[in-house]
Amino acid sequence: MSPNVNTVLFLFFAACAAGSALAMVTRTNPVSCAMWLIGTFFSVAAIYTLLGAFFIGIIQILVYAGAIMVLFLFVIMLLNLGHDYEPDIRGTGWKISAAGAGLIIIALLGRVFGGDLPRPLGDVAGPRMLAAAQAERGVVGLIGIPLYNQYVVPLQATAILLLVAVVGAVVLAKRKA
Amino acid sequence: MNEMSGVAQIPLSYTLGLSAILFGIGVAGVIVRRNAIVLFMCVELMLNAVNLAFVALSPYAGLQGQIFVFFVIAVAAAEAAVGLAIMIAVFRHRESVDMKNFSLLRW
Amino acid sequence: MLLLQEAAHAAEALITTDNGFEPVLPWLIVGLPLLGFVLNGLLSVLAARRALPKLPPVGDPYYDHAHDDHGHAAAPARAHAPALAAVGGASEPSEQESLDHGTDAHPVDRAAARHDAHDVHDAHGHDDAHDAHDHAPAGPKPFTHTLPSLIAPGVLIGAFVLAVLNFLKMRGVEGTHHFALSSAWEWMSVDTLRVAAQLQLDPLSILMTLIITGVGSLIHIFSIGYMKEDPGYPRYMAYLNLFVFFMLILVLGSSYPVMFVGWEGVGLCSYLLIGFWFKEKANADAGKKAFIVNRIGDFGFLIAMFLLFWNVGALDFATVNHNLLSGEKMVAFGGAMITAVALFFFLGATGKSAQIPLFIWLPDAMAGPTPVSALIHAATMVTAGVYLVVRSSVIFTMAPAASLVVALVGALTAIFAASIGLKQWDIKKVLAYSTVSQLGFMFAAVGMGAYVAGVFHLMTHAFFKACLFLGSGAVIHAMHHALHSTHNPADAQDMRNMGGLRKYLPVTFVTMAISTLAIAGVPPFSGFFSKDEIIGAAWNGAQGHSFLSGASLFGIEGRYWMGFIGGTLSIAAFMTAFYMGRMMIYTFFGANRTGDEERKHLHETDWTLKLPLVVLGLLAAFGGFLNVETEVPVVRSLNLFGTGEALHHWLEPVIAGASEVANQNVGELGEFHHAAWPIFLAIVIGLGGLATAWLLLSRRALGTADTQAAYDNGVEKTLYNKWYIDEAYDAAVVRPVRGLSRLFARFDMGVLDWIVDLFGRLAQIFGVAFGRLQTGQLNTYAFVLVVGVLIVLGSFVAL
User: Fold this and answer.
1) Which of B31, B104, B106 sits opposite C779 (nearest CB)?
2) Class of domain A1-86
C-alpha cells in the first residue's frame, strides 16, 4: 500500500490514541487518568476528521472532551481523590489476567475485522455516495437532515433522556438536608 | 472532500484494528482499576472504540453509522452525569470510591 | 408298576382325574386347624384388647376445660395425671398383668414376694417361668378363655374324624388304588415348572395325618387342663392350631414346594410356641435358636429342591419318582448329583429333626410349655425329617453313599444324645435328649433302607414319647401346684426335688411306666417291635442282604458300616433303657424330697390331664401289634391280629419305587432273614438297662436340688454339660460370624460410607470453590463477563 498522507497521519494519531489509552489505564492519580483520556479523545477526534466524519469529530471534542471529561474532573476534585496511600489498582495476578484478556480480545477482534467484511454499499461507490451527500448537504447537514427526518423519534427520546439524566443527577447528588 | 473520491482512503483494517486495540485496553482497565471514577473512564474508552468502528465502517455501510455515533455520544453524556452523581452519593456513605470497599453484590 | 404308571398319568395331568379313590373333603382336614387358628387368634386379640388399661379420654385441656361443668382448668389435667401415673407405675400393661388385678380366691398366691421368685430359675428357662406370670384370677372366666377349650380340640377332633373317614375309604379299595390327588389351584407355572397347591392322599400321608391329628387331639385336650390358667391361653391354642395346620400341609403336600411351605410353617410355629412365655429372655432366646438352626436346615432343603428341579425337571413326588425310575433324565445311580440332592435334603432333615449337627435347639426348646414339647418335639415336627426321607425314598435309594451317611449320622446321634441323657437332672431335658436319640434310631432305619421300620418307630415313638412328655407335664403341674402353695422357689422340673411320686400321681405313674417299658424295648410293648426291626435291619445289612451292603463310603464297604451301626444302636438302646429307668426311679420311687408341707398339695388334677395319658398309654402298650414280624416264631405267637406286618403291606406302594431302584441297580437281594437272636438281644438290652438302673440307683440317697450338686467332675460333668457342644458351636461358628460381621461393618462404615461421604464432600468443595466467584467485586464480575465474551467470540471465530 502506498504511503498515503492520510494513512501516515492516521497512524500517528492512532499511536497517540493507543498510547494515551495505555497511559490512562496505568496511572494511579485519577486526574492524570482523566487528562490522558482527554488526550485519547482528541486523538480519536482527529482520526474522525481524517476519516471524513467532521461533524462527529467536532461533537467528540465538544461533548466528550469538553463536557464529560470536565464533569469527571469536577467530581474528582469534589471528592478530593488522589491522595490515597495505596494505588487503587488490583494485584499483579489481576494485572496479568487483564492484560491477557485484553490481548485475546484484540486478537479475536483482529481476526474478525481482518477477514472479509461485508460492504453493502460497495468498495468505492460507498465513499463516493457519502462524499456526494456531503457536498450536497454540507458537513452539519449530512448528519442533521437524516437526524431530523428519519431519526426524529430517537432524537426526541434522547432529549428526554438527557432531561431525565440531568434531573436524576441533581436528585442523586443532592446533599440531604 | 474531493480526496474522498478516488484517493486511497485509510485502509479499513487499520481503523478497525485501532478500534480493537482501544477496546482491549478499555477491557483491561475495567478489570484492573479499583477506583470507581477511573473504572468509569475506562468504560468511556470502550465506548469510544466502538464509535470509531462505527465511523470507520459508515462509508461502506451507510450513514446510519454516524447517526448512531451521535446518539452514543449523547447517551454517554447522560450516563456519565448520572453515574457520577451516584458515585458522589456513594462517596458520602463510605468516604471512599475504592471498589474494594463495595462488595454488596454478593449473596 | 401299575402305581407308577398311574402316578405318571396323574403327574402329567396335574388334575385329579385318575384318583384311585374319591377322597372325603381332604381340604377340610387342612382347613379345620386353620379355622381354629383364625378363631383362637381373634379371641386372643380380643382378650388382649380387653386387658388394656382403661385410660380417660385424652383431649386438649383447653377445650376440655371449656366443656367442664366445674370450670376447673386443672381438673382434666389432674384426671390425666393419676391415670398416667397408674400406667407408668405398673409394669407394662399386658394381658398377663391386668388379669392379675381381679378378685382371687387364693390369697395365698398373691404374695408380692413371688415376683422375685422368677429370678430363681436355671439359665435355660423352663416351665417354671410361667410361675412368674400371675395366673388368671379365679372366678368366672371371660369367653375369650373358655371358647378356645372348645374350638381348638374341636377342630382337631374334626380333622381326625375326616382323616379316619379317608383312611377307611382308602382301605375299601385295593392296594394299587391307594392314591388320590386333590388340587386347589395352580400355584407356580413358569416355563417347565408346574407346581400346584395340591394334596396327596396315599398310605404314608394318611398314616402321618392320623398320627398328627390323633395324637394332636389328645395333646390339645391335655393342654386345656394344663394351660387354661395361663393369661395367654387363647394365643396358645391359636398357635397350636396353626402348627397342626402347617404340619398337615407338610405331610399332605403332593410336591416338595408345598411340603416346604409346611416345613417352614412348623418352624415358625415352633418359634412362636417355644418362646411362648417370651417375657423371660431365656425363653425368647430358645425360640430364636430353634428358628435359626431350623433355617440352616431349610437352606439345605432349598438347595436340594433347586438341584432336583434342574436335573430331574419336576418337583412333585409322582413326577420325580417317575423320572428317576424311567431313566429319562439320565440321572446316574449313585452319581454325584443325586448324592448331592440326597445330602442336602438330609441337611434339611437334620435341622428339623434335630440330628447332628443341628440338634442343639431341641434341648433348649424345653423352655416352652410341656404340651408343646409333646406335640412338636416328640410326635410331629421332629418327625418331618423322617417323613421327608421316606417320601424321597427313591432319591435316597439311588444314592447309597448318602443313605449310609444318613444311617451313620442317625446312629451317632442316637448314642451321643443317649449319653447326655444319662446325666441330666431336669426331667424334660432327659426326655428331650431321649427324643433326639430316638430320632437317631429312625434316621438310622431309613438310612439303611428300612423305610417301613423307620415309619413304624416314628409311630410308636409318637405314642410313648407323647405319653412321657404329657406325663412329665402332669408331674410338673402337680409339683408346681405343691411348690406354689408354700411359696417354695424350688425348681418344679428338677428330679432332685421329686421322688416317690407314685403314691401321689398314680395314673401318671402307670402310664409313664408303660411308656418307659415301651421305649426301653421290652416286649410286648410297642417300642420293642419297632426298635427290634431297626436293629434287625442293621444286622441284616451287615450280613449282606441290604442294597447298601455293597455300597461304600469313605472306602469302607456298607456291610461293615451297618455292623457298626447295629452295634452303636444296641449300645444306645441300652443307654436308653438305663436313663429312662433312672428317670422313673428318681421321679416316682424312693422317698419324696419335695418337702413336708408341699407334699400335702401333691395330687392329680383334671380329667383333661389324665385322659390323654391313658389313651396314649394304651397305644404305647398295644400299638406295636400293627407291624409284627411274621417269620419269627416267638414273636408270631404274640401276634393278636393274625395278619402280620400290616404296616409293611400298607406302606408298600409308597416304597415300591425305592425297591424298584434297588432291584434295578443292585440286583436281587437275599431274603430278609428274620433271625431270632437279634430279638433276644433286644430283650436283654431292654430289661438289662432297666435292671442296671434299678440296681445302681434305687437305693441311692439323693438330696434335693439345693443339697445335691450337679455333677462336678470328669466324665459326669462333661455329660451333664452336654459335651460342651453349645460352647463349641459358640467358639467355632458364632464368634467367627460375629467377627466377620464386625469386619463387614468396619468395611461398610469405613469404605462404603467414606465413598458416599466423598460425594458430599466433593459437593461441598465445589460449592466453596464456586462460591469464591461471588466476591461482590464489580471488577471480578466484569472479568467473568469478559471471559464469557471471549468464549463466545472465540467460538465464532474458530468455527
Assistant:
1) B31
2) mainly alpha
CB within 8 Å of A127: residues ≥ 6 apart: A52, B4, B5, B9, B59, B60
Query: Which among C462, C473, C493, C438 is positioned nearest to C378, based on CA atoms?
Result: C462
State the total domains in chain C.
Answer: 3
Measured between CB atoms, does C778 come within 8 Å of chain B?
yes
Q: Give SS3 for C127.
A: coil
B54: contact with A, CB 8 A cutoff: no
Query: Is C779 in contact with B106 (Cβ distance < 8 A)?
Result: no
Percentage above 90 pLDDT, chain A: 55
User: Which of A11, A43, A80, A113 is the best substitution to test chain B (most B C-beta atoms within 10 A)?
Assistant: A113
* C-interface mutation test, from B23, B25, B30, B33, most C Cβ less than 10 A away: B30
> Given CB atoms, is B82 within the 8 Å cutoff of chain A?
yes
**Domain end among C709, C740, C757:** C709
Q: Other C-beta atoms within 10 Å of C614: how many?
A: 16
Average pLDDT over residues B100-105: 80
> B33 and C786: CB-CB below 8 Å?
no
- Gap from B42 CA to chain A (nearest CA, Å): 7
Residue type, A100: G
Strands C552-553 and C193-201: unpaired
Domain end: C359, C382, C398, which one? C398
Residues C645 and C526 in one domain: yes
Which of A94, A101, A112 comes nearest C790 by C-beta? A101
Residues C660 and C739 in one domain: no
Q: How far is A21 from chain B, CA to nearest CA, in Å?
A: 7
Residue C88 domain flag = no
Kindly report the CA angle at C388 between C385 and C393, in degrees rounded to 5? 130
Shortest Cα–Cα distance, A42 to chain C (Å): 27
Same domain for C156 and C304, yes or no, is yes
ipTM: 0.90
Interface check A105 vs C, CB under 8 A: yes
Mutate: best of C790, C791, C792, partner A, most A CBs <10 A:
C790
- Selected residue with higher pLDDT from C640 and C595: C595
pLDDT of C712 over the 80 cut: no
Residue C721 is classified by DSSP as: T
Coil, strand or helix at C544: coil
Q: What is the pLDDT of residues C513-570, one digit of tens each?
A: 999 999 998 887 888 888 888 888 888 877 777 777 667 777 777 778 888 899 999 9
Nearest chain C residue to B98 by CA distance is: C777
Q: What is the pTM of this model?
A: 0.70
C129: pLDDT strictly greater than 50: no
Instruction: Say yes or no: B45 contacts chain A, CB-CB below 8 A.
Output: yes
For the stretch C434-458, pLDDT in tens is 999 999 999 999 998 888 889 999 9
Contact B60 A126 (CB under 8 A): yes
Does residue C772 share a domain with residue C698?
no
pLDDT of residue C706 exceeding 80, the answer is: no
pLDDT at C119 over 50: no
In a domain? residue C594:
yes
Write a three-state SS string for C616-681: HHHHHHHHHHHHCCCCCHHHHHHCCCCCCCHHHHHHHHHHHHHHHHHHHHHCCCCCCCCCCHHHHH
In a domain, C367, yes or no: yes
Question: Quick one: C691 and C777 in the same domain?
Answer: no
Residue of A44, C312, C564, C548 lying closest to B44 (CA atoms) = A44
Q: Which amino acid is at A102?
A: G
Check CB contact under 8 Å for C794 and A108.
yes
Q: Which CATH architecture has domain B11-100?
A: Orthogonal Bundle (1.10)
In a domain, C565, yes or no: yes
Q: How does residue C740 score in pLDDT terms, banded at 50, 70 and 90?
A: very high
Q: Which domain holds residue C183?
A: 1-45+143-398
- Measured between CA atoms, how close is A107 to chain C, in angstroms? 10
